[in-house]
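Database export, one record per block. Field names are fixed; values are copied verbatim from the stored entry.
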Amino acid sequence: MSLSFELLGNDGAARRGRIATAHGTIETPAFMPVGTAGTVKAMLPQSVAETGAEIVLGNTFHLMLRPGAERVAALGGLHKFMNWPGPILTDSGGFQVMSLKELRKLDPDGVTFRSPSDGSEHRLTPQRSIEIQRLLDADITMSFDECTTWPVEEAAAAASMRLSMTWAERGRRAFTERPGYGLFGIVQGSIFPALREESVAALTAIGFDGYAIGGLAVGEGQELMFATLDITVPMLPADRPRYLMGVGRPADIVGAVARGIDMFDCVMPTRAGRTAQAFTRRGELNLRNARHREDPRPIDEHCTCPACRDHSRAYLHHLIRSEEILGSMLLTWHNLHYYQDIMRGLRGAIESRSLGHWIAAFRSEQGLGDIPPL
């Protein structure tokens, strides 16, 4: 395999690891800020790095439409184009296949769809998805899949999963092996244990540098998500990274790390930052609320991000009420910093084998009650 993963330690099912890529190393468990169109919204690349993020996520579908993968390649690849020197993972476009079902036509070979921006017709196949990600110069390429919708009947979930497994094999054949670059397969099957088992068996037979779990955080709720992880994660190879796609809230991430997941991404911290929401150690704050109008305190007295270090809740409330861009920038920075603080805390707790105590303290601060069974 071309991508190096070193398992450094564990605490129960939780893992502490390190992924070595062509553009640097990633300490795991890791959270990847989402930079869908070649930018983490409201953030400079150096600001993203200052939060502690080591890898960001881009998206095949959106970058294919604008500015175009060939154009990005001609300009030196996505790292140079967006001025992010560290590792990049690119989502394959499979989620958009699900979300744009009114604009698409699905067949066994791929998807034909109309651009939501200008109506132009495009074709995306497993091979083309891999090619686009190569042109972008993604360190971690994702297999093209169909993200199974929710709710879903078992027969429909089975058909969707098996199509994704066929596409995974075709994409694997199209992938060009290079030192420091890797391809991840995506486990599908919704909440059905037998389908998840079948999907894992198919992907491990093909062989990938890492394994993602897709089709969760689509409306099934935390209890079903954790139950699906309890079934799926133990079946995955222990010597490969494990990535839970599109997750999520801090409590979701903490619970998934305890179940053996290594990597995460989610738009939540950046989207929340643009809508006046701040994540803190004691839960979420809405800085739009009038109660913050004369509050001189920072968002979180223990946080060292610029929003907390240099500004009061009253000032942030003013920025938001005035619709100033700086408000979105500062809250996004804070949220990404908080998410990276969680990951730093989890890595340290796994290293010291004190994860149970760390999770208990986290849940107590968040007001979440007892730790759910693992």
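Remark 1: The chain has two domains: 4-266, 273-366.
Remark 2: The chain has a mean pLDDT of 95.
End of record.
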